[in-house]
Amino acid sequence: MRCPFCGNTETQVKDSRPAEDHVAIRRRRYCPACAGRFTTYERVQLRDLVVVKKNGRREGFDRDKLERSIRIALQKRPIEGERVDQMISGIVRRLESMGDSDIASDTIGEIVMETLARIDTVAYVRFASVYKNFQEADDFEDFVQELRPPAPEPDTDA
Ligand SMILES: [Zn+2]
Questions:
Q1: How confident is the model over 79-131, as pLDDT tens digits?
Q2: Which of 32, 50, 79, 87 reaches 20 to 30 Å from 123, CA-CA?
């Protein structure tokens, strides 16, 4: 594995352990050339997924890209990193088990929203607002209203 800091290909594995409830192996690596340390993950890949975008363009599924968009949505939310990793692995597993290597980008968006909705409402709204690309502030308001049951009347006795 090439060192991300200096490009040296002779890096060493210092530690390997199961991660994400044994879905992945986490390896701590060390680069003797620059003393850099970094982590890699080994995961099962059931199939090579291709994302088909709305405009028909196709590109290889990129787990890191998915992870970035989810982490942005979860920024500063009280969700543990390990749980996020598990969530992402769960989403990827679902995509891989859909029976077709071609996955519409919409399908991925829907699955991410569904998953985030169960984990964190704020992250869900953030992700959905980007994903659904709201043009009008009102659309966004309506959308947020749908998320929660109506709040009880404010207590005016206080
Ligand atoms: Zn290095």
A1: 988 889 889 989 998 998 887 889 998 889 889 999 999 999 999 988 888 77
A2: 50
Instruction: Specify if 5 maps to a domain.
Output: no
Instruction: Please check whether residues 83 and 52 belong to one and the same domain.
Output: yes
Cα(5) to ligand 1 centroid in Å equals 5
CA of 13 to the centre of ligand 1 (A): 13
The CA 39 to ligand 1 mean position distance, Å, reads: 13
The answer to whether residue 1 is domain-embedded is no
Closest CA relative to residue 127, chosen from 68, 81, 78, 82: 68
pTM score, whole prediction: 0.64
Residue 9 alpha carbon to ligand 1 centre in Å? 8
d(CA 42, CA 1): 12
Gap from CA of 26 to ligand 1 centroid (Å): 19
CA of residue 3 to ligand 1 center, whole Å: 5
Contacts of residue 85, defined as CB under 8 A and 6 or more positions apart, other chains included, come to: 19, 20, 24
State the distance from the centre of ligand 1 to the C-alpha of 62, rounded, in angstroms: 25
Return the number of other C-beta atoms located less than 10 Å from residue 89's C-beta. 20
Q: Do 137 and 66 share a structural domain?
A: yes
